[in-house]
Write a structure and sequence with these properties.
Layout (H helix, E strand, L loop, with lengths): L1 H30 L2 H32 L7 E2 L1 E3 L2 E16 L2 E4 L5 E6 L6 E2 L4 E5 L4 H27 L5 H26 L2 E3 L4 E6 L6 E2 L7 E4 L4 E8 L11 E6 L4 E6 L2 E2 L9 E8 L11 E18 L4 E2 L5 E8 L5 E8 L1 E6 L2 E6 L6 E3 L11 E4 L2
Parallel strand pairs: 1-24
Antiparallel strand pairs: 2-23, 3-12, 3-17, 4-11, 5-7, 5-10, 6-9, 7-8, 9-11, 12-16, 13-14, 13-17, 15-16, 17-22, 18-19, 19-20, 20-24, 21-22
Helix pairs in contact: 1-2, 3-4
Length: 388
């Protein structure tokens, strides 16, 4: 019955429009009367909208009078405030400052290596030694000469105290003794440069040079030592986030290869904008008690750049868009009958997204009811029934 009414009324409207078209629309188009066409269009739209509203009234009346007529079934969502934390995701790398190659400070042959790969060592432990090429023997000779010079100096000093001998003899003995002490100190420094010590506590990751190899300072590494306890993630963050990301900002680090995600915070932000990619450096510490996290692992850094403790969040799938690009949802206005509502189009302003939800900045309020399931089949100003 309802379809018959729709068909009759719509046919009447079309026929009336067709009749007018032959009498006036065609003439307006032929005469190229722009203002007349615009006015004619407005009249037709008003007539169409009036007919549309009349059809809705008829449909509502039929639904009320005919028990066999059924309202579209929907489910509704009540708008409630919730905490919302948005995170910017950036590609990052795992690093540590305690990951170094150890080079000799003295030219010569690698005499001995006192560590093995995988061995944990303490800071200051002797790890390797370069052949001193006779420096130790030279030091022993100098120490013997220094002892003799000290004896001569002490004797000369006692004689001088007894007014025996000349001042020149005393000064010569003192100078000779002090000179040999300086030579001993310099030779000890040279000898110490033949030894390679652990600069920090860590693990010997790799032995690079073999015993007997010729070593050159700064050119031929002996071994690599790594400390996995002070790890951090480092990333280049676009400059547009400069005002949102500070020291102490909450962050998460996801390491896909290890299938783990760690909660952390921003430990350091750069004070320099890279002119090439317009970014600044960010560093976040990583807890690595299991020592599974290693340098140069790829990771994803998620940094909190926005928070709202009372955000109005709705699923992205409920957002519709018209031909003008305006975003909207369908609000539900209660009617007299239980669980019967009328839809009302509500244009909304959207904020940041998080997974499958988006924050609504305006257009809806706390306590509003909107169409959830069934949003794709309803239209504005339509009666619907909520399924409990």
């Amino acid at each position: 019955m309802k379809k018959v009414f729709f068909t009759l009324i719509l046919s009447s409207f079309i026929l009336s429009c067709s009749g007018n078209k032959s009498e006036s629309t065609k003439d307006l188009i032929t005469s190229k009367n722009l203002e007349g066409l615009k006015s004619h269009k407005e009249k037709k739209l008003k007539a169409f909208n009036a007919l549309k509203n009349e059809l809705k009234q008829i449909n509502d009346a039929i639904i009320d009078l005919d028990p066999s007529e059924k309202l579209p079934l929907i489910s509704m969502l009540e708008i409630k405030p919730e905490n919302f934390d948005h995170y910017v995701e950036i590609q990052a790398n795992v690093k540590t400052r305690n990951n170094v190659l150890l080079y000799p400070e003295y030219t010569g042959t690698l005499k001995a290596v006192y560590a093995q790969e995988g061995q944990k060592v303490k800071k200051g432990k002797l790890l390797a030694m370069i052949d001193d090429a006779g420096l130790k023997n030279q030091l022993e000779q100098l120490e013997i000469q220094a002892e003799l010079s000290k004896t001569i100096f002490d004797r000369t000093q006692r004689l001088w105290d007894q007014n025996i001998g000349s001042e020149i003899q005393l000064l010569q003995a003192k100078t000779n003794y002090n000179s040999q002490l300086k030579s001993i100190a310099q030779l000890k420094k040279q000898l110490n440069r033949t030894k390679i010590y652990a600069p920090f506590s860590g693990t010997i990751d790799e032995i690079i040079a073999n015993t007997g190899a010729n070593m050159m300072p700064g050119q031929t590494p002996v071994m690599r030592i790594v400390n996995l306890s002070d790890m951090y993630a480092e990333a280049d963050v676009p400059e547009r986030y400069l005002s949102q990301i500070k020291r102490g900002t909450t962050a998460f680090v996801n390491i896909p290869m290890l299938n783990i995600e760690l909660e952390t915070n921003v430990r350091q932000t750069g004070t320099f904008i890279n002119p090439v990619n317009r970014s600044f450096r960010v560093e976040t510490p990583l807890e690595n008690t299991s020592e599974m996290i290693m340098p140069n692992l790829n990771c994803k850094l998620k940094i909190n750049d926005y928070s709202n403790p009372s955000a109005l969040m709705i699923p992205l799938g409920l957002i519709k868009e018209n031909a003008n690009g305006q975003k909207y949802v369908y609000k539900l206005i209660p009617e007299d009958k239980k669980q019967v509502f009328r839809t009302q189009q509500a244009f909304v302003e959207l904020g940041k997204k998080s997974f499958d939800k988006v924050e609504v900045l305006s257009g809806i309020e706390i306590g509003d009811l909107i169409v959830e399931e069934g949003a794709t089949i309803v239209e504005d100003n339509q009666r619907v029934k909520n399924i409990q």
